[in-house]
Amino acid sequence: MSSINLSPIKEMELRASRIPGVVSLAQGVPSFDTPDAIKNAAIEAIEKGKVAKYSLAPGTLEFRETIAQHLERENKFFDFETEIIATAGSIEAITATLLAILGPGDEVLIPDPTYTSYQAAIKVARGVPVFVPLSEEKHWALDIQEFEKLITPRTKAFLFCNPNNPTGTMFKRNQLHALAQLAIKHNLYILSDEVYKDFIFNGEGKLYSLAELRGIRDRLVYIFSFSKAYAMTGWRIAYLATHQDLAKKILAVHDALVTCAPVVSQFAAQAALEMADEDVETFKNYFQKRRDLTCKRLDKMNHVFEYQKPDSAYFVFPRIKREIIQKIAPGGGSWQFAIELLEKAKVATVPGSAFGPRGENHIRMCFGRSEKDINLAFDRLEKFFGKNFS
Amino acid sequence: MKSIFKKIVQFHLKLLTKITLWRHRPFIIAVAGSTNKTTTKDYILKFLREKYGEKEVRGNPKSYNTEIGLPLAILYLDSGESSALRWLKILVQAKMRALFGRKFPKKLVLELGVEEKGDMKPLLEMVRPNAVIVTNIEGSYTYANSSLDNVFGELKLLVQQLPKDGYLFLNCDDGRVKELKNFTKAKVTTFGFSEEAEARAENLRTDAQGQTFDFIFQEKQESVRIKKYGRTNIYAWMAAKVVKSFL
Fold first, then answer.
1. CATH no. for residue B227?
2. Are B140 and A81 within 8 A, CB to CB?
3. Tens digits of per-residue pLDDT, B166-213?
4. Which domain holds residue B149?
5. Beta bridge partner(s), residue A347
6. DSSP-based three-state secondary structure for B1
7. Predicted ipTM?
8. Are A79 and B208 within 8 A, CB to CB?
C-alpha cells in the first residue's frame, strides 16, 4: 500500500493550534452548535436506555425508515430494510464501499481538485487514485471527453462530491447524465458524496442528484453526512444508499470495520431529519451571507487573488496570482504560501495542492466560520499583502 | 420545571382531544407496529380519499404518534418543539378547535407509536379505534430483546379494545403479529406473502422502475406496479387495499 499521510487540512489545523491567536479558515467545520431538538432527542434516548448496546449493523430500523422517507421527498427511492446503511461519518461509508468493490491496484477516478481524504480512502482500499482535471475557467466543470480518456480496464469507480469541495461549485445535470452513460458503458460504480447538498445559494434551486436516476441504481452509491447540514461533525454519523446487492457487500465490510454507527448518533440524526429543517435553512442563510462577505473581501484583494464565485457549500478556492506566489513563496507553491499566511498573517488556510495537481497555486478558504472571524482573517490578509506589496 | 410544564400541556391537550372526538365521533383507523406505520398510513389515506374525497379523511401530519403527538394529529396542530410560548399558543388554538370547530373529517387514520410497556394506555385514553392495522413487531438491536414482547403486550391492549363490529388487519408473515388474532372480538383479515394470508402478494419482481407483483384477494387477482422499493412498501399497499375494501 502506498503511504498515507495525515490530511493536509488536519496538518494545517495542528500547526495553527500551536500558534496563539490564529484565525482559522482551514477546516470545514460549521461555526454552529447542533440544534437543540437534535440534542434533546439524543438525551432522551440516553435516558431511556436505548443507546448502550449495538444496533443492527445497518442501523436501527426507525432511523433507516426515516432516511428512506426523507429520500422519497427528494425523488430518491431506496428500500430501508436492505438498501440503506447508517455509517460512522461519510468517510466510513466511502471507505467501506471502496473496500467492498476494489481489488488491489484497481483505479478510482476522482475530480482534480477534490476533497483530500478521497485519495487516502482509495489507498486504504489498495486502490489507485486517478485525477480527472476540472476546468476552472468553466466554473470547475467536468470535461467528459477527458474523463473517458482516463478510463482503463482497471478503472472501477468514479468518486466525487457534489457540490464540490474545495471549489464550492456544482456539477450540472447534463454533466451528470453524461457521466452516468459512461458508467454504464464502462461498467463503473459511481460514489456520489452529497454532504453539502443543502447549501445551495442564490436561487440555484435544489441539487440534481444521480440518485434520482433509476437506470443506474445498481451502480450508484449515494452518500450523505449529517456533519455539515445539521452541525454534527462530532457525532460521526452519515448513511449510504445503494442497490441491495451492493449494499449486502458493503454491509459486510461496515460490520468488520465498526459493527454499527454510534447508536446515540443514530437517534440524534433521526431527530435531525424529523425536526431540524428550519435549522438547516437558517444555516444556509448564514452561509450565503458569509459567502457574500468573503467574496466582497476577496474582490478588494483582486491584486492577490482571482476566483470562481462558489454557488454552494462553504468554500471558496481562489487562485493566487503568479507574481504574488513567486514573491511570497518562491518555489514553494501553495503549501509554502499557506505556511507563510499562517506564520506571518496568522490566518490558517489549506494549500490547494492538497486537493490535487490542479489545486496548485490556490488556497481553500472556509466561510463556515463566523462573520467576525472572516472579517478578522481578511483584515490580517489585507495588512499582510499591503505590507509586502506597497 | 420543564417536566411540570410538559405534563400541564399533555393534560390539556388530552382533554381537548377527548372533547373533539366526543363532539365529532369520527371513524378511527389506527396503524400500529414497530415500523412501516407512516407508509401504511399514507397508502390508506390515498385509497380512502379516492373513495370518500379529500376532506373526509385525515391522517397524522409528520407522523405525530405519541402521547403528545397524537392530540396534535387529531386537533391538526403543529408541535411547539422546545418553545414554551409556542406551546401556549397551541393550547389556545386547541381550545378553539375543540369547543367551536365545526368541520371535522369523518375518518381519521392515526399512527400509534408504542415502544415500551405503558405507552398504549395513555393513547387509548384518548382514542378508541374502530379499525386497527398492525404492521410488524421488529427490533433494532442485535441482542435477544424482551422489549419486543413488551410491544406485543401493548398491541394486545389495542386489539382487545376493538368492538365486535370493528376490524383488525394483521401482517401474517410476522409471528408475533399473527398471534394477536387470538385477543380480539373484531373481524380479522390477514395480509402478507405467505400462503395462509387472506390478502396475498405473489410473483414479486424488481426493476429500474420499481416493483411489480400480483395481488390476490377475495378470489380476484390484479397486477400491481409501485415505484418504491422494498417489501415493506408492498405490505403497506396491501394493508391499505384491504382496508379500502372493508370501509
1. 3.40.1190.10
2. no
3. 999 999 999 999 999 999 999 999 999 999 999 999 999 999 899 999
4. 3-246
5. A23
6. coil
7. 0.87
8. no
